[in-house]
Design a protein that fits this description.
binds magnesium ion; binds adenosine-5'-triphosphate; Rossmann fold
Length: 228
């Protein structure tokens, strides 16, 4: 049995809106093992992105606990949390979140430079990952000069360049054509199978279900396991 790498215990999250408080997550439990692939589906607005943000420690739950390898995460421990996020987690955002002032290459270099890698090595590694997503020749383009799908692929290169232990992917193929979607998913699966990386992915596309170890449907603030 492989080790549990991430665990969410009874997570609650609500937001204030002009129409009152919205309770998005109402008791979510989830366990992710090393090398495991989990897919999460659910209607728009059901809280999939909110859940990924909490699991990846980018947002704080109102209630509930997150454990990384049995260590409870305390958000007040800023250093520990940001080190985990930068060195162990890779996040592919639904809306890319690239830095517009930086070109594709520089965007992919950011996590490496934060980690303290020297500029030359960071550049070489970032170029390798841009090559993997088929964008080496566009490395000097800025996000505004790229198509949605190209931006998405830069974001994927950025998420993978640090060789994370866990990849959080929010509709990573949402803006890609079939060929590029297949290429990106193969890249993600290869990392999982070869390097023992764990993957939590949100996708509306039922086609991917069969490639995952476990599937969940998020509705009414809770996860229900579905057949994959
Ligand atoms: N920062 C925020 N402030 C207020 N409300 C928010 C915030 N973030 C999310 N919400 C609300 O929480 C609910 C869940 O949003 P979330 O983005 O997690 O849904 P989702 O399942 O990812 O949807 P989609 O499939 O459309 O991406 C929505 O009703 C949304 O309006
Ligand atoms: Mg979303």
């Amino acid at each position: 049995m492989s080790e549990t790498i991430l665990k969410a215990h009874n997570i609650f999250k609500s937001f204030d809106s002009p129409n009152g408080k919205i309770e998005v997550l109402k008791g979510v439990f989830l366990e992710l093992k090393k090398g495991e692939k989990i897919i999460i589906q659910g209607p728009s607005g059901s809280g999939k992105t909110t859940l990924l943000m909490i699991l990846s420690l980018l947002d704080k739950p109102d209630k509930g606990k997150i454990f990384y390898k049995e260590i409870e995460v305390f958000w007040a421990e800023n250093k520990f949390v940001s080190k985990l996020r930068n060195e162990k987690f890779g996040f592919i955002f639904q809306f890319y979140n690239l830095i517009n002032e930086l070109n594709a290459l520089e965007n992919v270099m950011v996590p490496l430079l934060i980690k303290g890698m020297n500029f030359k090595d960071a550049r070489k590694k970032a170029e390798e990952y841009l090559e993997l997503v088929g964008l080496y020749s566009r490395r000097f383009s800025f996000p505004t000069q790229l198509s949605g799908g190209e931006e998405q692929r830069v974001a994927i290169a950025r998420a993978l360049v640090n060789e994370p232990e866990i990849i959080f992917a929010d509709e990573p193929t949402g803006n890609l054509d079939e060929k590029n979607a297949m290429k990106i998913m193969n890249l993600l699966f290869e990392l999982v199978d070869k390097n023992g990386v764990s993957l939590i992915m949100v996708s509306h596309n039922p086609y991917w279900l069969k490639y995952f170890n476990k599937g969940f449907y998020l509705a009414n603030g809770k996860l229900n396991e579905i057949e994959v």
